[in-house]
Design a protein that fits this description.
Structural class: mainly beta
Order of helices and strands: EEEEEHEEHHEEEEEE
Number of domains: 1
Distance between the termini: 5 Å
Radius of gyration: 16 Å
Oligomer: single chain
Largest sheet: 6 strands, antiparallel
Strand content: 35-45%
Number of helices: 3
């Protein structure tokens, strides 16, 4: 494939990129243990956007497979829209174990940091909002995101969710194939105050787009 776009996201920064149908989007963890929040919009209708709940429960099943509401997404799974249409497909991910991406938690925001007594700063919601603002998308229209490499696990014993250190190592990546023309808003997650989301050390990430 031919690389047509490359961008290194500084820690706590955002980026927006249009990915045409059939093109591949790759998110590379340069130093390891870093999370990127990903919001996806139909490039022809921004009102149709990523639905993480539909992605878990309204997926396109392989022939003969029973209906199974899933707790994670991995290779071969689709990112489904609010209209239950495939937007992107995960074609490859290199971290082990696979499927360590959050599809349940709401992205961090300024309210989270301020309400818990932390240093006030933009969260992923504000970062993505600013990245896609030039497309006329309002902050209140940002969907719940796929949080790539976020190690978000449920503890049955504690009856709560836990945020653990990512398992991604330097050079690990996840790659998507666009199933429609998409606008993708990304946030290099800034959370380093309360949890092990980014191993408490925010680092750069690389974004690449390839044309088959």
């Amino acid at each position: 494939m031919n690389q047509i776009h490359e961008h290194v996201m500084a820690p706590k920064s955002g980026h927006a990129i249009e990915v045409k149908k059939g093109q591949h989007l790759r998110i590379i963890d340069i130093e390891g243990k870093q999370v990127v929040d990903v919001a996806v919009f139909n490039a022809d209708n921004y009102g149709e956007k990523l639905s993480t709940s539909n992605s878990r429960t309204r997926y396109v099943p392989p022939a003969g497979q029973e209906y199974i509401p899933r707790d994670h997404l991995s290779e071969g799974d689709h990112l489904m829209s609010t209209l239950c249409r495939p937007m992107m497909t995960i074609v490859k991910e290199t971290p082990e174990p696979k499927g360590i991406h959050d599809t349940h938690n709401r992205m961090c925001n300024r309210f989270l940091f301020e309400s818990h007594g932390g240093i006030s700063q933009d969260g992923c919601h504000e970062i993505i909002s600013k990245a896609v603002a030039s497309y006329g998308i309002a902050p209140e229209d940002i969907p719940d995101t796929l949080d790539v490499f976020m190690n978000y696990q449920h503890s049955c014993e504690k009856h709560r969710w836990e945020i653990l250190e990512p398992v991604s190592k330097p050079g690990d990546y996840i790659e998507f194939r666009a199933e429609m023309d998409c606008l993708v808003g990304l946030s290099n997650c800034p959370e380093d105050q309360f949890t092990d989301c980014n191993a408490r050390n925010c680092t750069p990430m690389k974004i690449e787009v390839f044309e088959p």
